[in-house]
Fold this sequence. Notes:
Layout: H1 36-42, E1 47-50, E2 58-64, E3 66-75, E4 83-86, E5 91-97, E6 103-112, E7 117-125, E8 135-138, E9 143-145, E10 151-155, H2 162-167, E11 169-173, E12 179-185, E13 191-197, E14 206-211, E15 229-235, E16 240-245, E17 250-255, E18 258-264, E19 279-282, E20 285-293, E21 304-312, E22 319-322, E23 340-342, H3 344-353, E24 359-363, H4 384-388
Parallel strand pairs: 9-15, 16-24, 22-23
Antiparallel strand pairs: 1-2, 2-5, 3-6, 4-5, 6-7, 8-10, 10-13, 11-14, 12-13, 14-15, 16-17, 17-18, 19-24, 20-21, 21-22
Amino acid sequence: MLRSRIRIPLFLLAAVSLTACSAASADEAPSRAGGADAGAASGTPAKVTVAPPAAGRPVTVTASGGSLAKVKVVDADGAELTGRTAGGGGSWTSDRKAAPGASYTVEVTSRGAGGKETTSRSTYAIPAAGKVNKLTLAPGKNTTVGVAQPLSIVFDHPVRNKAEVEKQLKVTTSSPTEGSWGWLTDYSGKDRVDWRPKSYWKPGTKVTLEATLNGTDSGDGGGWFVRDYRTGFTVDSVARVVKVDLDRHRLTVERDGRAVRTIPVSGGTPGGDKRSWRGTAVLMAKEGTINMNSETVGLGDAYDKDVDFSMRLTWSGMYAHAAPWNAPYFGRANKSSGCIGMSDADAASFYASVRVGDPFEIKGADTKGVVAPGNGYGAWNLSWEQWKAKSALNG
């Protein structure tokens, strides 16, 4: 008697349960006496189902009528997506989520009721992301920084799934360090998350960040992350702290808790928009000779000049720098447009002695407020409890 066969189109195979191509279906298996022993004797394979991978979800494989002996998932570059078996071999779930635009080959070895192993293989392509979110990391990779430098991430697009993103950010340190992530708005208006220790870093600490973001959705139209990131830096072997007293018009450099130098300075002019910020600012960059124009900071046409030995402290434009035009006021009065000025000679040697990431602890009776967390690296102006409350995982 002729037996008809049904052909299944290849494009449907990804969505149906998979069995070994050499195995007979249950309808075609020869009938034998013996009940349950008949299935064992015939070597009936397990029924394997691969849920078609989707961006942002783990890859899952299940087996019925048997168990999963081995599951291997690799992307187009040959990188393996590791996972865990559960339910006595009845299911397997990948540790990582599937990423948009990726292609995965799933190879499954299953063991049927009779102990016979069969292998099936299938490939899945995931549509590319319509919008991609990227990020900028600070400090730079393999740099050496001062004891106040946070680990900072600025995102190209808004992040609504803050908790989900934060879960993928792992910080490791060479010495025991208590720290926390905190979400804030960068001075640019973009979403940003910083990791700072409870107190200044222990000198010599090595810090590593692994951001396993590939396949994570920013949420609410912010786009997908389509790659992982890794960076690291080393904290200077010297704990250097710069203390600025605007009331006494002087700057003191401390190394490992000991004052080693005092420099006469002139800070921002009291009583108006030219006052300096107070609180802890972190040296963001040593920019050398730059042009400073008062119009860029909302002070009209007060100045437009090239300034030497410029050290940026905030995004809003507060620097420490050489200010020879203010020489009569160094150590005597605050007469700058908001920056911390000093002589050419003092600025040159001071510039050479400090490092990006060094804290400037600034105090003074007549200032325009405390440096905000997003205006440079102002997180140190929050208490530890206030900072921890900014983590998306502490709510």
